[in-house]
Amino acid sequence: MARVDLKGQVRTVVGKSGAKRLRRAQRIPGVVYGGARGAIPVVVNPQELLSALGAGENVLITLSLDGADGTQTCTVILKELQMDPVKGRPLHADFQEISMERKIRVEIPVRLAGESVGVKGKGGILEQPLRQLFVECLPLNIPKRITVDVSALDIGDAIHVRDLTVAEGVRILEDAGRVVASVVAPAAEEVAAPVEEKPAEPEVVGKKEKEKAEAEAEPETKETKETKTKAEAKTK
Fold first, then answer.
1. Which of 61, 97, 104, 121 could form a disulfide bond with 35, CB atoms 3.0-4.6 angstroms apart?
2. By C-alpha distance, which of 36, 37, 20 is closest to 28?
3. Nearest Cα to Cα of residue 29 among 49, 58, 54
4. Is the pLDDT of residue 228 over 60?
């Protein structure tokens, strides 16, 4: 496991207003937990902290703190880093003091390697339900990541926590039956349902004949009667 150095100061300014002043001065507040002296408020340079974290998520940090009693040094790991959701800048850091002779529990990233035969040759879909897992080990044995080879996975196959191989001295704390990665069949294409055509209204037999008969049976108007009378007189 990589080790880096980080300098800071014991913090004497507390509260929201003090934290704002620190950030304006390109510093951020933090707290070191877990030591024999209890929680220690500290101040660190956010850019130097980010540079240290470039060595890995669980990098061991030798933190040197300047204070009224001189400089004190402890080994820590980053427990939590709060970020500004808009500007993406560090706002606050929590550290966990550790002993190099005592096992600790840390969260390790899981990375998949290789191309599954079920994905490459059969169009399957690779899923990864577990992307982080907890392990217990001595600080110097903390793995940077756990790499899982998925090349042999076919459709319907899965890799579980019990299938993982880790270094000696590292114990996985997750349920052995949890699925780390699997390959599932591609979703079947949805077939559009046929549009139901509304049946045409059946034509009533004799309807046209009935309408014609009704038209012919309409009562004679005055003009019609006069025309009919003239025609009969000419015939006579």
1. 97
2. 20
3. 49
4. no
